[in-house]
Amino acid sequence: MGVQTILVVEDEFLIRFMLADGLRDIGYQVLEAADGEEGFDVLSSGQVVDLVVTDVRMPGGIDGMELTRRSKSLAPGRPVIVCSAHLFRSESHPADEFLAKPYTFAALADVIARLIGDPWQKSSQTLSA
Amino acid sequence: MAKELSDAQCLIVADADVLIRNALAEYLRHCGYKVFEAATSDEVIIALDEGAAKIDAVLADAELTGRHNAFELRIWIRDHYPDVQVVLAGNIDSAAKAAGQMCDDGPHLRRPYDPERVAVHIKRLLAATRR
Lengths: 129, 131
What we know:
- The structure holds two protein chains of two kinds.
- In chain A, about 45% of the residues lie in helices and about 20% in strands.
- Chain A is built from five helices and five strands, in the order E-H-E-H-E-H-E-E-H-H.
- Chain A has helices at about 15-25, 35-45, 65-75, 105-115, 120-129; strands at about 5-10, 30-35, 50-55, 80-85, 95-100.
- In chain A, strands 2-1-3-4-5 form a five-stranded parallel beta sheet, sandwiched between helices.
- In chain A, helix 2 (about 35-45) packs parallel to helix 3.
- Chain B is of the alpha/beta class.
- Chain B has helices at about 20-30, 40-50, 70-80, 90-105, 115-130, and strands at about 10-15, 35-40, 55-60, 85-90.
- In chain B, helix 1 packs parallel to helix 4 (about 90-105) and helix 4 (about 90-105) runs antiparallel to helix 5.
- The interface between A and B is medium-sized, with 19 and 22 residues.
């Protein structure tokens, strides 16, 4: 299995960069999108995306919840993690996981590893196979 | 341009189209650069002003949007960050060519693949989203 690809959708530039850079550092391939419309462009382009991490409130016509619904429509089995400072864990949402802002990078990495696996673990499994 | 970019380690790729931006940035990462992806001129300015890394060069679409257009942005960068090289690309092919040139003189000194493949890849992605 190759490196998994994560789509990070976040309109705050520095947050997006730090998340994407951190995820690349731990071995994932990362695509970045600056809002929901860009995120949907990436999902519609035919590129392989194994997991989506999206903010909820973003400018433009597609917020994080709508992007989650569209991602599920395109690929029902693809996990989506929504991150928000404006949503409570108890509220219903179409995503697989919810992270309340502020969250730590380690918390996000743990959730991702649980949903699609840890790239380091996968590479060591490949080496030992 | 090649000589001027020879020591570059950290770049900004600025393009309003996410598919173009992603592909160019990924290519330049394969060349060994750390790459910030900016969707607007405002994000370029944030990266320069607030990003933790020292930026060496900006590869921007000539039709970049934001508070400044691409040409205004080039002037702004020249005034505020005179050491930062700015390359404006007018279309996908010239952007890929510029990325290839950056790659030749970048940290790894070798192209991971031909930049023409980047242009072909971008056009294929764009066609897929417009179906």
